[in-house]
Amino acid sequence: MNDRALPQPAPAIALVVNPCALAGDNLGLWPRTVELLRRRAAICAELRTSADGANAARVAELVRQAQPEVIVAAGGDGTVSEVVQGIMLAAMNAAPALAIVPLGTANNVGRSLGLRSFRRQGHGGIALATGAILDGQRRRIDLGQAGERYFAGSFALGMDADILVTRNRLRRRLRLGRGIGGYPLYLWSCAVNLVRHRSSLARLRIDGADESAAIYNLLVSNAPIYAGEFRFDAVNTCDDGYLDLHRFAGASDYLRRYPQAWRRHLGHSRGLDVRAPAELQRVRELHVDCDGPVACQIDGEEFPAVTSYCVRVVPQGLTVCVPPGVRP
Questions:
Q1: Please, what sign has the CA dihedral across residues 227, 178, 26, 85?
Q2: Are the beta carbons of 274 and 231 closer than 8 angstroms?
Q3: By the 8 A CB rule, do 317 and 88 touch?
Q4: Can you tell me the distance from the alpha carbon of 55 to that of 50, in angstroms, rounded to the nearest whole number?
Q5: pLDDT, tens digit, for every residue of 166-195?
Q6: Can you state the angle between helices 26-40 and 123-134, rounded to 10 degrees?
Q7: Could you tell me the pTM of the whole model?
Q8: Ordered DSSP codes for 43-70
Q9: CA dihedral sign, ordered 215, 221, 227, 232
Q10: How far lies 238's CA from each of 74, 117, 144, 292, 294, in Å?
Q11: Is 227 helix (H, G, I), strand (E, B) or coil?
Q12: DSSP conformation class of 20
């Protein structure tokens, strides 16, 4: 009798890539990534995203038709968000695992799962991303849901959303392409809104308890890394059945806590023990009612302003591929 292990079938992988992310060094790193995946996996479908707002529906159709074991989101947090939405829209009993190739700028979700930005790490980023897909662990993590939209990273309204709205408006006015303008445009949008943004009274229901509060900024996070370089929690495993709620009462509170979150991120990156802020609340469901329409952002994407929001956790809602030895 032959005791040698039988060869395992190659996993079926679908690729969803944002072509806008294939610039600079990424232009050469992405083909190398695909080459490494083809050596040990069967790529059963490929999809390139577009700017027409229909990517989630296309991803859902891809999932239903190709039925991959793993679906790769190659891009930034916006691409990850669209793929997550597509997986959930497909509503498959055997949903594929999400893998991330972090080709974006912030890569909040990918970095929260132990991956590294291709733009910063180059071939080291490739090794982590392909290792997660081919040799890594499959973990169940929570998702957030705001209305009909699912998110792996964050939901925000108030100051953070207004900064995004201002940045996008400036891009349109100056006819700048997506991704052009970068950090200077973001800083200018911050400065504009620090001058004009004001707190507004909102009615909140947090896990069934009602209250009214002045809201300057409201952030609900699922992943520990936010906006590239901020950590508003000490350790967040993304799988505890809760979302992290952060409320900012005014400009001074905002300007105090963001530098704290930046220093916490630096300390955690260096392996230091860091503490969660006293203001942190862990919640399962949040209702927000405002006196007028308020814009929001979900995983870094602008959404139309409405007067009411319902945000809740979807416990263990998504399977993700993480590098060997990494716990999200």
A1: positive
A2: yes
A3: yes
A4: 7
A5: 988 888 888 776 655 566 888 889 889 988
A6: 30
A7: 0.91
A8: EEEEEE--SSS-HHHHHHHHHHHH--SE
A9: positive
A10: 21, 19, 10, 32, 27
A11: coil
A12: G
